[in-house]
Amino acid sequence: MEVLILQVFVSLVLVLGSIILFSYSAKQKDHQHAGRLALLPLEGDPSTGRERSFSEAEQERNATEPIS
User: Fold this and answer.
1) Whole-angstrom Cα distance, residue 2 to residue 5?
2) How many helices (H) and strands (E) does the chain have?
């Protein structure tokens, strides 16, 4: 029974801590920066030379499509 009381106490402390940290984060408005950082790996790295222009990709797509 003592373990159950300790487990409930620790769970409540964790929930309270997460609520406090979430409210602090929402107050600082740093969630907008996280969205931009999540999309950052999707951008091409210009130093690798793997980035192609739209016209090159369109020409390659047209070359591989069958003519009907």
Assistant:
1) 5
2) 3, 0
Phi-psi bin for 43: left (phi > 0), alpha (psi -120 to 50), beta? Answer: beta
Q: How far does Cα 33 stand from its chain's mean position?
A: 10
For residue 2, give the 3-state DSSP assignment: helix
Tokens 């620790």 found at: 10
Q: Is residue 29 over pLDDT 60?
A: yes
pLDDT in tens, 34-44: 667 777 666 66
Check: pTM over 0.70? Answer yes or no: no
Chain center to CA of 15: 23
Q: 57 by DSSP, 3-state: which?
A: helix
- Report which residue type is found at 18: S
Q: Tell me the C-alpha distance between 26 and 23, whole Å.
A: 5
